[in-house]
Amino acid sequence: MASSVIRASRTRSTIVKCRPVVGALSLAAALGTFAGAAHAKDFLDIRARDQCDPVTFNAGRANPLCSPSHAGSVTLQEFLDALPNGGHDAWKFNPGPSGAHIDRGGTVQVRSDAGETHTFTKVVAFGGGAVPALNVAVGNAPPRIECLAPRPNLTSINVAANTAQLFQAGGTLFPPGINLYQCCIHPWMRTIITVR
Q1: Under DSSP, is residue 25 helix (H, G, I), strand (E, B) or coil?
Q2: Which residues pair with 13 in a beta bridge?
Q3: Residue 143: CA count within 13 A, CB half-sphere
Q4: Does position 170 have pLDDT exceeding 80, yes or no?
Q5: CA proximity to 167, closest of 42, 31, 66, 19
Q6: Distances in whole angstroms, Cα of residue 29 to Cα of each of 15, 20, 35, 42, 162
Q7: Cys-Cys link to 114, which of 50, 88, 121, 171 (CB 3.0-4.6 A)?
Q8: What is the pTM of this model?
Q9: C-alpha–C-alpha distance, residues 24 and 15, integer Å
Q10: Helices (DSSP H) in 99-162: which residue ranges?
């Protein structure tokens, strides 16, 4: 009898010890399924940004460079002083050069949080832009041929202050694969978007 009590006690102990393991495995499987779904990317927000100060950027100009309502704090002189050092870091795309990805068929929004107009141009390789004086920021690299074409076109859009445009990943502007984009006005503004 003592032997059957010990055996029953061991069985209960084994069952009690197994329940947390089975529960943990079930939780891990559920989280794994959720994580797989979380990796699907069907929306990507790309922002053109700058911090132009409207007072100094627009001084003496009939046509403003910087939207008069923009709350930027970088003066024109600070902007120009940064050109030999790679351009001012407030002029950028988010996501930046490290890039992002989106699944084919997803929606890409390209919008401006900037005061100036920028371009969002698909290029074969990064290089200079259409404004020779600003190419000093990229080592006076020759202008990309894509930046010399009239815009907008199928692979280059203008991104004016306070605007947003929607595109489908897998289309002409965002084809499948690894894609490089730069601003043809401020050529240090760059990003890489992968369409999977």
Answers
A1: helix
A2: none
A3: 16
A4: yes
A5: 42
A6: 21, 14, 10, 24, 44
A7: 50
A8: 0.79
A9: 14
A10: 145-148
Say which CATH architecture domain 41-51+90-195 belongs to.
Sandwich (2.60)
Strand partners, 108: 44, 167
CA–CA separation, 4 vs 89, rounded Å? 77
pLDDT in tens, 56-114: 999 999 999 999 999 999 999 999 999 999 999 999 999 998 899 999 999 999 999 99
Q: What are the distances in angstroms from CA 21 to CA 25, 34, 121, 168?
A: 6, 20, 53, 45
Q: CA angle at residue 109 from 50 to 90, to 5 degrees?
A: 15
Place of tokens 């002409």: 172
Instruction: Report how far residue 56's alpha carbon sits from residue 194's, in angstroms, rounded to the nearest whole number.
Output: 37
Instruction: Judge if the upstream peptide bond of residue 84 is cis by omega within 30 degrees of 0.
Output: no
For residue 118, list its beta bridge partners: 159
Q: Which residues of 146-172 are buried (b: 16+ CB within 10 A; e: fewer)?
A: bbeeebeeebbbbbebeeebebebbee
Cβ-based burial of 183 (10 A; exposed 0-12, middle 13-18, buried ≥19): buried
Strand runs labelled E in 79-163: 92-94, 100-102, 107-112, 118-123, 156-159
Q: Please report, as a single letter, which amino acid is at residue 39.
A: H
DSSP state of 178: E
Domain boundaries, the chain: 1-39, 41-51+90-195
Give bridge partners of residue 110 from the DSSP assignment. 46, 165
